[in-house]
């Protein structure tokens, strides 16, 4: 009887157990089937990111100035090397990190004991730190040797290193990872325009920063089924990466080189502090060349300083001096203050009065009655100061401010490059601060100094844009360095429209008179004569501006500038050159006419000849 009871108890126990097991199986395999399937897949799967290739940047003729190259790095998993998993030890009981060190030493010609020290010391640097960079940017030959060693355990021969017998799975804990490395084939030629790519957008420079998201592609992924040691067995899913968009620039490498070579030669000749050059198409605002010097090597950022990395043409405002005179003259004429026949008495070299102090002429020149054209040809400060007073009486200070604001001063141009400065043009009524004070309000000094380029600070790109407005008949343009985005499969994807609007800043009549008559005469009969080129009809204006220091001026330091273009009848290019602090002690001169105008002439001649030959080749090829 006891036996029967015991048997029944055992039966009941077993039955209950099987019922419970069945319920559990139903719970796992039916009710929560999807959940446990996902859990198993996550355990058995590994996902690797496939980095996207960044877009190419090419100049106006298709020459590559920035591209990405696939490079490989070697990483060490110190935890896996020093403490292999039980599964790993079961399959390869003799495995030891010294075998991996020996194998790596054969490929990379690094002493094995140094690799062993790296593995053991790195594991103790920081708790939880496992992955250590061993080699960055290995050669193609080393990539192939590493792959051979991974896939063919046994005997391997390394050229120049002999033959090495490898235990199975020697490189367990060693990984090779790919990445895209940015290259800049043009080096310093485009360093300020293209800039360079950093690990983060905020630390990048130039176009690499401005068009960071456009150039950046979309990473892909590859999903593997792995074994218990996480070794990939086969691929189950792959999402290919998408390359970023490519950029086509308006900047032409040849014109850029013309500008850079001429500028650097002049800066060095005059032992100047720095210099900028800008070449623009007045009809469109397209920047054909933009150079700042000193410069830097975008592939050697560690040895570059912040000063050399600045794109001075857009970041560094300065008082323009006499190159501002044509702009204010145009504003005065367009507002009916003066006409080409207006006569202004220039006070024989000295003009003073209550509320605006004393004004003299450059080199103590003395002038009497002059028309606006003569004032520009002779670059009279007094003539311009009186023009400012005439405009104040007729239009008021606010209208003066608004007219100059229309030319883009006191605000960024919107060029597609980062860190642009707005310069400084105070509102006529000033700006009220948080504590109720008013700063920057115009005075008699403002009315008489702004017309000849003092009490206002501008960037080179602002002045170049203003001269484009004069040269194209008075229309606003937006300076830009990128023409379009380009896709290898689709061609031109997005051709940017860079025109501000069809409005007139000044009348076409006024603009044409300034360029074809007044500024052409500055070159033929005035201080810009060194920029004259036979057969080119060069027009332009010189400027020799004292550098503002602490509320005053450094009487021994200047910015020598010239802005010119050609041909005057239908301008194709505008060129600006400003050279900061040419060394006066050399005795070679320091004015814009002496220092800067020959540089503009050289850039203009070479660039116009180049463009015309380029156009001729295009016409000839299309006719064939």
Radius of gyration: 36 Å
Largest β sheet strand count, sense and barrel closure: 7 strands, mixed
**How far from one another are the termini?**
115 Å
Q: How many strand units?
A: 23
Number of domains: 2
CATH class of the largest domain: Alpha Beta
Percent helix: 25-40%
Q: Which CATH architecture of the largest domain is right? A: 3-Layer(aba) Sandwich
> What's the CATH superfamily of the largest domain, by name?
DD-peptidase/beta-lactamase superfamily
Number of helices: 22
The rough form would be described as elongated
The poorly predicted ranges are none
- Indicate the structural class: alpha+beta
What is the arithmetic mean of pLDDT? 87
Beta-strand percent range: 15-25%
GO molecular function, one term: carboxypeptidase activity
Main location: membrane
Domain Penicillin-binding protein dimerisation: 50-228
Subcellular location: Membrane
Lay out the secondary structure.
Elements: H1 2-31, H2 33-44, E1 45-50, E2 57-58, E3 64-77, H3 78-82, H4 86-91, H5 97-108, H6 112-122, E4 131-135, H7 140-151, E5 155-158, E6 162-165, E7 174-183, H8 191-194, H9 206-210, H10 212-215, E8 220-226, E9 232-239, E10 246-249, H11 253-269, E11 274-280, E12 287-293, H12 306-309, H13 312-315, H14 325-334, E13 344-345, E14 350-353, E15 357-360, E16 369-370, H15 372-378, H16 381-395, H17 397-406, E17 431-432, E18 438-439, H18 444-449, H19 460-471, E19 482-487, E20 491-495, H20 508-525, E21 539-549, E22 552-566, E23 573-580, H21 592-595, H22 597-623
Helix pairs in contact: 5-6, 5-7, 11-22, 14-16, 14-20, 15-20, 16-17
């Amino acid at each position: 009887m006891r036996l029967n009871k015991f048997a029944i108890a055992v039966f009941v126990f077993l039955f209950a157990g099987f019922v419970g097991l069945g319920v559990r199986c139903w719970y796992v395999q039916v009710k929560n089937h999807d959940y446990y399937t996902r859990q198993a897949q996550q355990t058995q799967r590994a996902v690797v990111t496939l980095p996207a290739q960044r877009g190419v940047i090419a100049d106006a003729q298709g020459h590559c100035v920035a591209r990405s190259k696939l490079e490989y790095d070697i990483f060490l998993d110190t935890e896996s090397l020093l403490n292999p998993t039980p599964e790993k030890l079961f399959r390869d009981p003799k495995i030891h990190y010294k075998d991996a060190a020996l194998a790596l030493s054969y490929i990379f010609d690094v002493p094995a004991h140094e690799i062993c020290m790296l593995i053991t010391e790195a594991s103790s640097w920081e708790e939880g730190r496992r992955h250590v960079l061993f080699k960055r940017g290995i050669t193609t030959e080393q990539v192939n040797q590493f792959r051979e060693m991974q896939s063919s355990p046994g005997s391997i021969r390394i050229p120049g290193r002999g033959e090495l017998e490898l235990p199975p799975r020697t490189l367990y804990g060693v990984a090779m990872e790919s990445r895209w490395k940015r290259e800049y084939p043009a080096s310093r030629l485009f360093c300020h325009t293209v800039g360079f790519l950093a690990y983060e957008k905020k630390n990048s420079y130039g176009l690499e920063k401005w068009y960071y998201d456009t150039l950046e592609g979309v990473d892909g992924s590859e999903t593997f089924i792995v074994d218990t040691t996480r070794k990939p067995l086969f691929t189950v899913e792959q999402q290919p990466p998408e390359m970023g968009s490519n950029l086509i620039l308006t900047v032409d490498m040849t014109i850029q080189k013309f500008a850079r070579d001429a500028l650097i030669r002049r800066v060095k000749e005059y032992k100047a502090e720095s210099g900028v050059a800008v070449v623009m198409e007045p009809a469109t605002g397209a920047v054909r060349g933009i150079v700042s010097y000193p410069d830097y090597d975008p592939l050697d950022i560690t040895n570059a300083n912040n000063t050399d990395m600045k794109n001075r043409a857009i970041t560094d405002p300065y008082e323009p001096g006499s190159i501002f005179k044509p702009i204010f003259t145009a504003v005065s004429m367009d507002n009916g203050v003066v006409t080409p026949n207006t006569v202004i008495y220039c006070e024989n070299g000295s003009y003073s009065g209550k509320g605006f102090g004393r004004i003299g002429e450059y080199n103590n020149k003395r002038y009497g009655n002059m028309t606006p054209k003569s004032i520009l040809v002779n670059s009279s400060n007094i003539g311009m100061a009186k023009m400012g007073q005439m405009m104040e009486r007729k239009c008021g200070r606010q209208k003066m401010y608004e007219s100059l604001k229309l030319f883009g001063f006191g605000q960024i141009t919107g060029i597609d490059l980062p860190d642009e400065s707005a310069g400084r043009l105070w509102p006529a009524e000033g700006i009220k601060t948080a504590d109720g004070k008013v700063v920057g309000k115009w005075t008699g000094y403002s009315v008489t100094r702004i017309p000849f380029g003092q009490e206002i600070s501008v960037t080179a790109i602002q002045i170049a844009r203003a001269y484009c407005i004069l040269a194209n008949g008075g229309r606003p343009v937006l300076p830009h360095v990128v023409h379009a985005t380009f896709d290898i499969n689709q061609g031109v994807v997005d051709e940017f429209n860079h025109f501000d609007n069809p409005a007139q800043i000044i009348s076409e009549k006024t603009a044409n008179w300034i360029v074809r008559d007044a500024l052409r005469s500055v070159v033929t009969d005035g201080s810009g004569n060194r920029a004259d080129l036979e057969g080119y009809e060069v027009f332009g204006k010189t400027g020799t501006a004292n550098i503002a220091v602490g509320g005053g001026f450094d009487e021994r330091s200047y910015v020598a500038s010239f802005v010119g273009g050609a041909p005057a009848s239908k301008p194709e290019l505008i060129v600006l050159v400003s050279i900061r602090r040419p060394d006066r002690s050399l005795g070679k001169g320091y004015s814009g006419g002496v220092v800067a105008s020959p540089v503009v002439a050289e850039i203009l001649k070479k660039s116009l000849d180049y463009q015309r030959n380029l156009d001729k080749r295009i016409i000839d090829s299309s006719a064939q």
